[in-house]
Design a protein that fits this description.
Radius of gyration: 19 Å
Structural class: alpha/beta
Mean pLDDT: 87
Low-confidence stretches: 2-17
Order of helices and strands: EHHEEEEEEHEEE
Number of helices: 3
Strand content: 15-25%
């Protein structure tokens, strides 16, 4: 979703001047209310957002157990994009749901440590995880990996005018949005 901001400033820098979060304006509030509040803040202080003419709202619904792709485990890479760092930078990978072979046969899978002294490559970590859960679930799906790249990498470059907003199924903001 792109929102056009009318300012007389020009877009000056490809580097993020500073990361700005929107906890008070957005957390646990409806997405549209959040976007309105961010638009007002950008208009008030455009320089701290890189003087954008367009704000790109990257709205992402958080994955739920009933969503397509529930069987994907997210592997966050390090900044090198070839090794796994995990969400907290400690190499740990977590899967948020139980793995169910039948409605009455569910169990916890993970976590997995993809930094055993040195970070494992994306492929090594994925293989280790998939090997630990070799059985399809009750829907016939196997555990699969997808790679998530930190902001600032070539796969996910900094965009001074991008604001990532995570919402739940009701369009309520569940994480603190920030420009990145």
């Amino acid at each position: 979703m792109n929102i056009f901001i009318s300012t007389h400033d020009t877009f000056l820098s490809p580097c993020l001047p500073q990361s700005v979060s929107f906890k008070e304006e957005c957390l646990h509030k409806p997405k549209d209310e959040c976007i309105d509040a961010i638009n007002a803040r950008v208009l008030e202080t455009p320089a701290i957002f890189g003087n954008p003419h367009v704000v790109n709202y990257d709205v992402r619904k958080i994955r739920e157990e009933t969503d397509e792709g529930y069987n994907l485990v997210s592997l966050r890479t390090n900044m090198d994009t070839t090794t796994i760092g995990g969400l907290l930078g400690d190499g740990m990978i977590w899967y948020p749901y139980e793995w169910c072979l039948a409605a009455d046969n569910c169990y916890t899978i993970g976590p997995w440590d993809c930094d055993v002294g040195i970070p494992l490559t994306k492929e090594e970590c994925c293989k280790m995880i998939k090997d630990s859960v070799p059985t399809a679930d009750m829907n016939g799906n196997y555990l699969e990996c997808y790679f998530e790249y930190p902001v600032g990498t070539s796969e996910n470059p900094v965009q001074t005018n991008r604001i990532i907003i995570h919402t739940d199924a009701n369009d309520v903001v569940v994480h603190i949005p920030k420009n990145e």
